[in-house]
Amino acid sequence: MSNRDIGSWNSLISSLAQNSEGAIALVLFREMQVEGVKGIFLLYLVSVLSVCTDLAVLINGKQFHGMVIKHGFGMYRPIGNATLNMYAKCGCMDEASLCFGNIVSKNVISWTSLIIDFCKNGLGDEALKAFGQMEMEGVVPNKITFLGVLYACSHARLVQEGLKHFTIMINSYCFTTMIEHYTFMVDLLARFGYLEQALEFIEEKMPVKPDTKLHITLLSSCYFHKNVELAKSVGKRLLELEPREAGAYMLLSNFYGRDLEGVVQVRRLMMDRGIRKEKACTWIEINRRVHAFESGDRSHPLHRYIHNYLDVLIKKMKANDYMPNTSLVVQNVDE
Description:
The chain is mainly α. It contains 17 helices and 2 strands.
């Protein structure tokens, strides 16, 4: 295309962002700047901020936020919401809260984003405070807002508060519940040891059939609280519902512990069905470079230095008589 204007650039960058090609989208955005393309920055800033959110690249996100401030777009809801989510994804909730405060006309999406972002960063109490402030300002919550509220109650260990908000959502706001609401309620109850109540909640209060994620939530809590009998029952249901869910096999295998016959049975079933657990992956940004790591990964160029440093840390922990609790460590069933 010989004559590329702001519209064609925005279409390309937005399409790449929506199809999980964020890194390429950022490269093209830089190329657009080099070409000196003129136009309304508002059109593409939401897209590039969303890319920074998906990739959790704080340096780039700050640069684009600087452009937002420079052109006076921080007060606009779409830009404000995108900037809020970018900082929250990078773990910077102070900056995220400032961006939220700069939005002139906050709507339910703005408030819901703030509440859920607080939850994702482990700040359940702050999320509930934000929900209270939202109600005081007369903003009517929606079903997604209540997902954040229930999530917050779980992080803040407020079981009764969660039950109250669930009832308010149904009776006061007359919202049609989603399967995710029930999953959060089961997580809230089971996480803090109310396993029987969680099971009762599933069997008696759910108008829809429980899905895979809900069963995994309950199974994980059974594992944490070492309720073997309930775990076997839930695990059996889960494998009937979703026989290719690798996480269920891992949890069940670890449940059997010293029962080698049970462990072998689960692993054989997993092998016969061709199930393999995908390796966990984590990443961190250092000096504008994103470093990704998988379980057991030795492909990083500094892996020897990293492992040596880990050995030093382990020796220091032992010297300080630190004894890790390995009773809840999940073993790799492929080993």
